[in-house]
Amino acid sequence: MAVLHTNQDCTSNDSISNDGGCIVQSEGKKSAQSGAVVLGADSDTKEENHVMIDGIKEDGFSSSISTIRIELGIGVEEMWPALKNAVNLIVHHCPDFMSSCEMLHGDGGPGSIRLVKFGPASGLVTYAKEEIIEVDEENMKLTYLLLEGDLKKQFELFKPSLSLQTVAAAQASTDLCKGMEAAAEEPKDLNKGIEAQPKCMATWVLEYKLQEGVPSPNIELLNEGAKIFFRLIESLAITMKETTPQIMNKTTPPIGISA
Questions:
Q1: One biological-process term from Gene Ontology (predicted)?
Q2: pLDDT tens-digit map of 10-40
């Protein structure tokens, strides 16, 4: 999978971007900050963004795991189809980021192999050949394995997973806790709060292992790229909900993210 590249300077070991970005970097085998919750404001919309950082962890096989979670202002009903078809959406609407996707083997399900080529806006990454490991409809989870590409120069293992979960709207939860008396008098107003715009939590989990002898990667950029990717797909999903073009269908293959 290919995370969209940014030109932001992310050289600090444990930092948080001003726009609510999720930024974590590991130094060799050190563990980064875990369990942090970031509350920031988007520089364009001024809306608050909630980003949870689980940080960097080691498993028993000398690989590391980086996890971020970001709350999106759209329900899983719209976001999940868009996430599965993210490559097609980006190629169609943002060719400067992703210029093409060719299915080399399979039909887009587990075991399929595809070649994604990136445009000039993606940064230093030019292509990624990846295998689709998992498409879990029940748990709304996608897993990919990078087989070839620019990132293989640095990573022996690069396996990202993306998943979605339904979350209650924050304002609805607040109204429910504080408005019991008001609910008895004006139940319709409380119901409006409960029926607020649905939201979902998007999770990015990257399992990786470095090539021997290479310097520690800037995991901060990968996490920031994942955040940008989720926001882009969220925006496209909202657009697709209004226009419902043929590009959004169940037969198109799902996407991965790389950096």
A1: abscisic acid-activated signaling pathway
A2: 333 333 333 333 333 333 333 333 333 333 3
For every residue of 135-183, DSSP letters joined together read EETTTTEEEEEEEEEGGGGTEEEEEEEEEEEEE--HHHHHHHHH-HHHH
Backbone angles phi, psi at 217, to 5 degrees: -75, 160
The encoded tokens of residue 54 equal 């689980």
Q: Residue 111 burial (CB < 10 Å; 0-12/13-18/19+)? A: exposed
**Three-class SS state of 25:** coil
Strands 199-210 and 113-118: unpaired
The answer to whether the predicted template modeling score (pTM) of the entire model surpasses 0.70 is no
Cα–Cα distance for residue pair 75/234, rounded to 1 Å: 10
Whose tokens are 């050190």? That residue is 30
Per-residue tokens: 153 = 């120069």
In tens, the pLDDT along 159-215 reads 999 999 998 644 444 455 555 555 555 554 444 444 556 799 999 999 999 999 998
Q: For residue 155, what are the CA distances in angstroms to 8, 24, 66? A: 21, 17, 14
**Averaged pLDDT for residues 74-97:** 94
User: Can you give the pLDDT at residue 124?
Assistant: 76
Task: Please tell me the distance from the alpha carbon of residue 145 to that of residue 164, in angstroms, as a whole number.
Answer: 19
What are the tokens at 167? 């979350």
Distance (Å, whole) CA 98 – CA 121: 8
